[in-house]
Every structure is written in structure tokens, then in C-alpha cells.
Amino acid sequence: MKKFTLFFATMLFFSAFTFAQAKKTINWKEMTDFETLMNKAIQPVKLNKFDAVKENAPELYRSSKMLFASASESRFTKAETMKTMESLMIRCNDLWAAVHNKQSNDKIKAITTDVQNLYKKVSADIKQ
To answer: For residues 30 and 70, is the Cβ–Cβ distance under 8 A?
Structure first.
């Protein structure tokens, strides 16, 4: 009976520890902020509405920089995820430049698709 109790207590401890670790990545403020802003700015582009992305492009870039900086301080972020985050930050800068230079909506739409794909890859890497 003591072995069973010890085994059960050990399993409970490790389950709680694992859950706590998973919770940290989900509650990552900079990531949540970036995702919220990305959804606000980029989702309307799918419906060919570009006002939100044009208005929020500078803030999206700043948010991607903050996400990258916070990730570099995190011990949970892998090297390949950091490279993807750097690419995400660069593409957000490209988006800002495209909006600033008044490039075509097709060009802006292509960049927003890249931003979304890179974010999905980062998100999937972090949740592993």
C-alpha cells in the first residue's frame, strides 16, 4: 500500500509540474499581445479589407520585436524557434515598409500570409 501511495503522489507531483510548465507558454503576455494585434490587423485582409493592416502595421512590427526580445530571455525557446521568430519580425518590418511605400494590396496580402504562417509555426513550436 505504501508503494502505491508513493507512486500516486509522485505521479500527481509530476502531473502538476508538467501542467504548470505548459501554462507558462500559454500565458506569455507578449505572445498574446502579438496574436491579438495580428488578428485585429490581418484577419480583415482575407476579406480584402486593408484599412486595419495599414493602420496597425507599425504596431505589429513593434509587437513582434517585443515578442522576439522576450523569447530570447526565455529558457523555453529553442534555437530553431528563435530563427522563425526573427523571420517573423523581419516580415512584420517588410509589411510596415510595404504599407509605408504604398505598395499594392496584392503585395501586402502576400506578406500578411507569410506573417500568419510564421506565427503559426512559432506557436506550434512553443506548445510542444
So the answer is: yes
The 10 Å Cβ neighbour count of residue 58 is 15
Residues 94-119: b if buried by 16+ CB within 10 A, e if exposed: bbbebbeeeeeeeebbebbebbbebb
pLDDT (tens digit per residue) in 67-93: 999 887 776 668 888 999 999 999 999
Query: Any idea how long the chain is?
Result: 128
Cβ proximity of 27 and 70 under 8 Å: no
How far from 95 is each of 30, 76, 103, 127, CA to CA, in Å?
19, 28, 10, 26
pTM for this entry: 0.75
pLDDT tens figures, 5-64:
655 555 556 665 555 555 444 578 999 999 999 999 999 999 999 999 999 999 999 999
Provide CB contacts within 8 A for 68, sequence distance 6+: 82, 85, 86, 88, 89
Residue 117: alpha-carbon gap to chain centroid: 10
Using DSSP, state whether 75 is helix, strand or coil. coil
